[in-house]
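Milestone 3.1: sequence recovery, worked example.
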């Protein structure tokens, strides 16, 4: 229920969970874009005090890991004969 689409990834391709605890904010980004698997792309503590958005360096890391997840999934499917 706490997951929402992460902006900049075209809809619900990448979801983000935000959790606040004792004055700290933690975020996790994952994708369920691929049948039968979930890829956790990144989890981190948000340290910036400017704005509520996800910092650009974190977005770039998530974007890179999404590309790697797509490649991994494609290779895995080939190995499975699908």
């Amino acid at each position: 229920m706490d997951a929402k689409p992460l902006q900049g990834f075209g809809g619900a391709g990448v979801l983000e969970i935000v959790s606040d605890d004792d004055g700290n904010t933690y975020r996790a980004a994952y994708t369920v874009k691929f049948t039968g698997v979930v890829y956790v792309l990144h989890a981190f503590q948000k340290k910036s005090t400017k704005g509520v958005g996800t910092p650009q360096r974190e977005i770039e890391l998530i974007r890179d890991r999404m590309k790697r997840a797509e490649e991994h999934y494609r290779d895995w499917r080939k190995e499975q004969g699908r």
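The chain has a mean pLDDT of 88. The first strand starts at residue 3 and ends at 5.
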